[in-house]
Specification:
Keywords: Membrane, Transmembrane, Transmembrane helix. The protein starts with 7 loop residues before the first helix and ends with a helix. The chain has five helices and no strands. It is globular. Helix 1 packs antiparallel against helix 5. With about 130 residues, the protein is mostly helical. The protein has one domain.
Length: about 130
């Protein structure tokens, strides 16, 4: 019985949203960190020590994601363990990053940009996998 027809383009839209947002952060943090756009617009109101702490926490979080990805790779080799789609893993990481980023920045922006696509896409992926 078909529960609900989920257009794949909504799932794809959320994944592209996550890609674009995280590429933006990558470019801003790696290449434009010292510009006024990043320092004043994105991180305005924080002292140098607070900015360093936020950055260090984010680096630690992303190292945790890399560790989780490596563990996922090890577990994926075991045929007894259910398979997880790469999109699900990445969206869960983005969801966590958005929550953590909003807490560390003290504003909802990271949650809206990073977690919202996951909140939309994860249930759609689950429903899409359970259509029958």
């Amino acid at each position: 019985m078909k529960f609900l027809s989920i257009p794949k383009y909504w799932i794809n839209f959320c994944l592209v949203w996550a890609v674009v947002v995280h590429l933006f952060f990558l470019v801003a943090e790696m290449f434009f960190w010292q510009t006024s756009f990043v320092q004043e617009t994105l991180l305005g109101g924080f002292t140098i020590a607070q900015k360093a702490e936020i950055l260090a926490h984010n680096v630690g979080l992303y190292n945790g994601f890399l560790s989780a990805g490596a563990l996922w790779g090890l577990l994926a080799m075991n045929p007894k363990i259910p398979k997880v789609k790469p999109a699900v893993f990445i969206l869960v990481c983005a969801f966590i990053a958005g929550i953590y980023g909003s807490i560390s920045l003290g504003r909802p922006t990271a949650f809206l940009l990073q977690s919202l696509p996951s909140i939309i896409a994860l249930p759609l992926i689950w429903l899409d996998n359970h259509e029958g």
